[in-house]
């Protein structure tokens, strides 16, 4: 029985895997970067399917938006990126493949056999169906700005300092003088 | 369960794509059948028949200053993510939430003032 | 966690919350103030920003001491940070490090011609803020946010000498490798949250204590993976072997004042963070992580000392020596007793005094091109500049662990912790490794007093502390011009040409002397009358917020 979310998931999953492979395999690095943008967008779709709306928004805003721009600028700034074969195969691709596979298997095993992770996954699924009116963004806003069990007021304010340091750093490093 | 709002969003997205692509296809067909002149000339293959003649590739090396813009954009983009999660519930948060976000934005505004005074935000 | 119904609410942190982070707030205010003051300061005249920074550091120090004297401690902001005495002790060490670092800076910034002098001071203070937040964090979120502030600031500081290629390279290396390590740490934290459902250290500890964490219980695997990832991240940040590869290049390439500050500050923050996570939050999992840290400690002690012994550049040798010292500190963590925290804190305090001093002397000798720190440059220093030579000898003896210096006290308490934790073998390995240390530290002393400068004869004995402000630029200009004209411009030729010029050795700035004196006095005081500090460290270890 195929319901709508399942169909959506398979469409997004095919898009996701396809664009991920395209990023790695395309010889032109500009094309690879553009495929990366599509990949980020498709990942946002997966987050929506998982009821993680806030993460989906972050994914679109930060990754599909800002990070893609950053990557493209970085490519455009470098001189030799425009050549046709700017994204060559590394000789150790098989090693990378083995490591990635081992990592994936390890994490899937660890998450799958961890009771607490499964419990909280179920709890959050129940949570969002019960409180669909608010959604995860409201819940996150409450956690960030005001206390229930605990409050993230301080880390939130400190995050602005991190961003400030990043801004100053970008200017110090990037300015030509 | 997927919230149905996202279904609408997806339909609109696909509809938008179809509109643009379909429109292009339609215009092209129309153009080919009815409007196109029969003469073949080199200028017909230009992007703009009567505008500037495009030279070279769009893939050129950009000045470094653009990268600072991009980095600043990322910083303020992250800023927006935080403001968004505040904005959806700001009425519940009361004055304290307001002061919180004002402090947050003020610190980032300091960064903007710094960038501005250092002459980074300037048309090159 | 149940989805709470949305009801209006307001929350205001009380006065206690703010009071408990008062030192951090003062430092934050100072950092923002220097950033804004830089915008109005005249270019080329930014030395007074260091004074502003110092005032802020002293203010934060006073606030820290007041909090210590106040006697009450606990969580603030719903368990995000705390002001237990471990945090306060670490804060004092960090503030001392940043204070001495700021004292070293004005002369050095001027000499190296650092363009972004204003940002330099701001970033230094904000890095210290990040370190203090990290060492006082009682939640993984705070730990990471603090770490990010200090890392970002230090990447920039490492690369801030725009005219020196090695500095740029150091910044780049540090950025790439260290953000990789940050990612490991963050992944570990995320998996810890997945496995326990908590981000607060107390919550994690409570969860780990109540659930049986054997592999078969179904609670274990994820946490074990998380533990491994976090261990990798922390080991990288404290530059423990096998994650030390970035350390020498970054420490040598970065401006020396920054190296002095970061070699101490990062270690304090990262080790206190490591100890809080492993000795407190994950303490019930001890059988899992203890062998890992044991191996890291042994590798770091032996490897760090052996690598340091092969160096001829003193700055690079000190970089490897900081790797070796990370090994001794790791011993304290790996042994896991009540004495561990005490030993760690004592070691951090003593290490701060002697290491800042040693880098300070290197800084005073370093020339504008970043050279002039090899053993050959130290040759004959005893006659050229007796005060500087005596200070360097003191710091070298201290780092070697000679009794009646701070270094001895630090090693003593770390190895004592190893004995108490039934890890005699760690103490023995540490002792043997530090014998190698004696060799390369005392080799510097030997160079200072018992060797003659090979290439530069008596020309350099001209009064070095005389204020030679004006001729520096012209002299170096003629030097480069002269070298360019000379036909066979070999490497040795350049080295000789620069070494003979007296003006190339800039006079030691007054503030640098002050910083060196502070470090020297503390090295002696902690070595001769250590009991006060030992008691404080014990008090700190006992009041760790549970």
In whole angstroms, the N-to-C terminal distance of chain A is: 64 Å
Total strands of chain A: the figure is 0
Task: Count up the domains of chain A.
Answer: 1
Count of the separate structural domains of chain C: 1
- Helical content of chain C, roughly? over 70%
The beta-strand count of chain C equals: 2
CA gyration radius of chain A, whole angstroms = 20 Å
Structural class of chain A: mainly alpha
**Please, what is the average pLDDT of chain C?**
84
Q: What's the rounded overall pLDDT mean of chain A?
A: 81
Percentage of residues in helical conformation of chain A:
over 70%
CATH level 3 topology of chain A: Four Helix Bundle (Hemerythrin (Met), subunit A)
> Separation of termini of chain C?
23 Å
**Count of DSSP helices of chain A?**
7
> In sequence order, what are the helices and strands of chain A, one letter per element?
HHHHHHH
The quaternary state of the protein chains shown equals: heterotrimer
Low-confidence stretches of chain C: 1-8, 457-504
Structural class of chain C: mainly alpha
Give the C-level CATH assignment of chain A. Answer: Mainly Alpha
Strand proportion of chain C, as a percent range, falls in under 5%
Folded structure, characterized:
The complex is a heterotrimer of chains A (177), B (124) and C (546). Chain A has 177 residues and is mainly α. Helix content of chain A is 77%, strand content 0%. In chain A, helix 1 (4-25) packs antiparallel against helix 2 (29-49) and helix 2 (29-49) runs antiparallel to helix 3 (53-77). Chain A starts with a helix and ends with a helix. The mean pLDDT of chain A is 81. With 124 residues, chain B is mainly alpha-helical. In chain B, helix 2 packs antiparallel against helix 3 (90-117). The longest helix of chain B is centred in the N-terminal third of the chain and has 32 residues, at 4-35. Chain B is flat. Chain C is an all-alpha fold and 546 residues long. Chain C contains 23 helices and two strands. In chain C, strand 1 and strand 2 (81-82) form a beta hairpin. In chain C, helix 6 (140-158) packs antiparallel against helix 7. Residues 1-8 and 457-504 of chain C have low confidence and may be disordered.
